[in-house]
Amino acid sequence: MAEHKHGEMDTTEQEKTFEGFVNFTIRTVIVILVAVVLLAIFNG
């Protein structure tokens, strides 16, 4: 079995993926909030 050394794994791809996920989530929440506000304004 290979020797495991803590902190030697290259995590740049995981960090890029997580950053993309966070950006996607933030933008999706903003779009949903804008849609809810527009529905409240025009259907109210």
Automatic annotation (TrEMBL):
<feature type="transmembrane region" description="Helical">
    <location>
        <begin position="21"/>
        <end position="42"/>
    </location>
</feature>
<protein>
    <submittedName>
        <fullName>Aa3 type cytochrome c oxidase subunit IV</fullName>
    </submittedName>
</protein>
<keyword id="KW-0472">Membrane</keyword>
<dbReference type="Pfam" id="PF07835">
    <property type="entry name" value="COX4_pro_2"/>
</dbReference>
<keyword id="KW-1133">Transmembrane helix</keyword>
<keyword id="KW-0812">Transmembrane</keyword>
<dbReference type="InterPro" id="IPR012422">
    <property type="entry name" value="Cyt_c_oxidase_su4_bac-aa3"/>
</dbReference>
<feature type="domain" description="Cytochrome c oxidase subunit IV bacterial aa3 type">
    <location>
        <begin position="4"/>
        <end position="43"/>
    </location>
</feature>
<dbReference type="InterPro" id="IPR036596">
    <property type="entry name" value="Cyt-C_aa3_sf"/>
</dbReference>
